[in-house]
Amino acid sequence: MTKVFREIKASSECRARLGEVKTAHGTFPTPIFMPVGTQATVKAVSPRDLDQAGAKIILGNTYHLFLRPGHDLIRELGGLHRFMAWDGPILTDSGGFQIFSLNELATISEEGAAFKSHIDGSKFFLSPESAIGVQEALGSDIMMALDTCIPYPADYDTAAKATALTGRWAARCRKAHANRDLLLFGIVQGGMFPDLRKMAAEELVDIGFDGYAIGGVSVGEPVEEMREMTRVSAGLLPRDHPVYLMGVGTPEDLVESVFMGVDMFDCVMPTRNARNGMLFTDSGRIVIKNSRFRDDPRPVDENCDCYCCRNFSRAYLRHLYVSREILASHLNTVHNLRYYLRLMEDIRAAISEDRFAGFRKEFYRRREQRPPG
Amino acid sequence: MTKVFREIKASSECRARLGEVKTAHGTFPTPIFMPVGTQATVKAVSPRDLDQAGAKIILGNTYHLFLRPGHDLIRELGGLHRFMAWDGPILTDSGGFQIFSLNELATISEEGAAFKSHIDGSKFFLSPESAIGVQEALGSDIMMALDTCIPYPADYDTAAKATALTGRWAARCRKAHANRDLLLFGIVQGGMFPDLRKMAAEELVDIGFDGYAIGGVSVGEPVEEMREMTRVSAGLLPRDHPVYLMGVGTPEDLVESVFMGVDMFDCVMPTRNARNGMLFTDSGRIVIKNSRFRDDPRPVDENCDCYCCRNFSRAYLRHLYVSREILASHLNTVHNLRYYLRLMEDIRAAISEDRFAGFRKEFYRRREQRPPG
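^ Those are the sequences you sent over. The predicted structure of the assembly is below.
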């Protein structure tokens, strides 16, 4: 196995580290945030907007693309990169999470997951092998092994069984992994049980993956529990591979998880919240439809260098939002993505200069919060 | 009155001509198409997209901005240009058309138009004087006189009365026109009656405006009647002023109207149709959701240089459209606007090289149509 991760600088104060991951579509720096492009588009923005916002890698959802337009069609048209005109690296999830979150009636067997399309109800089946096949057809740079999701709360036996099945599926994914130019990450499950997390991590490391993801967090548990499972899982994973925390989270979650040693993140929060008019700033969040912004000539965030903040006032953005203009979703997304990506740039600079602890303190001071713990 | 229009080259074959119009926010070439920015945004695109598509002037709707967010707020925030971050010229309509088209119960008196907001039903009144006041508050470069709309069909008496009232309102607008840096155009009404059109044109020219618009067409009449009223009206207007055909139209309408001597156009067709998945090409229109585009790797129009055509396939655009992605509206709008603006660039080049008749012939040949008349 080629080494895909290089640690460039480790913090002397915590587990935060600067690194880079090499893929078939280029190398990206870590810690990194990946905008989510569910249906072959990061909602409301184009690839050039992503590029201008500073995105280095994006995420695609296997489940959605499998159903529509179909991975065979995307392969026929030259793969996902060409299809959506994104030249940089793409990570695809395995589809596991969506099968469970969008399908109340999904049925899991040793063989795989049977589920119905959320679009038209038609029946589908995804096995560990076909999950890899679909992701290879898409031409993903980083594929994820198919995992099972553990609901929250779950008792120990339920969590243990699901974690064991995820382990067996992970081994089958690794075996099915034919195109070794495409990287494959395993996913640590284990619910909210540290010993299951430990078993899962050891099993995955035994199989051997290009990187390791922490799954099954941000599924409804309190934030303290999420942070604790992240800390536990990140602590179990080998430091010569990238660690990816799936589906997380708030700006605070990113800062805390980097502190714990996480290298990669994805979350719909910046894009989804943008469409709902919730904007991130260095001093906290604002809800743009609020009437106090009616005549506010200031940009969303005076520290922000995005197209939206360089050109438009809060008053204008509020007008667009209350007028239900498409441009509201677009400009809000441009800003929120830039906020997340700039936060990661600042985090990388802080680690590079070995002042991450000070950065973290300042991050909370600006938003008039106290650091957790 | 300063001369705002300069004719650069007249066609030797027809009334088509190349010109330019000077405004407080710069000079634009004619014949020109103005994208419509109803609510202080051209729907689904940003000012930088407009600039890249080749837009030189855009239109704002006084009626909509008057109601939301209000002209006083826009003035307070530095005017419409700064509010929407568009540095080029802006033409604003008078609100007359929307009052009639969005308000079944609008009541017209000598004094002005009383109407109810289409947003919340609250009552408003617009007079010729306040229509100018609102447009001055917006900081429009080209203001339109308040006119009355004549329904189609209308009998001669109805049309004559409305046309006479428009004339009296035009005189009041001219008198109220305080800031002479902002240009003011009069609107020729007259319904489908050539003698009323003639009276209206003469009356407006007597008053004296910076430019003249042809209103009251494209209100439901057959295309032949629309073309005839355009021809009649354009023929009545002085050649040392710009002639603006309001709310028209299809690519064919633009070519035919330039032929008749029209200099300026606006229409929601490229933007609205884009959002409905109808795209313009040199060989005709396509409906992108059509299943024949499912696996079509070609761009919308191989002759087009827009961001959409340089990067995305019809198959991808179909996928976005059927998946109801916001990016569908955005990319389709980018393309359709570029199509319209490129058509106008081609028209200007043809007039400049005195080959407009040949251009027109080729325009119809490509779409396998015959020129009208």
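Chain B has two domains: 5-268, 274-361. Chain B has a mean pLDDT of 96.

Shout if you want it in another format.
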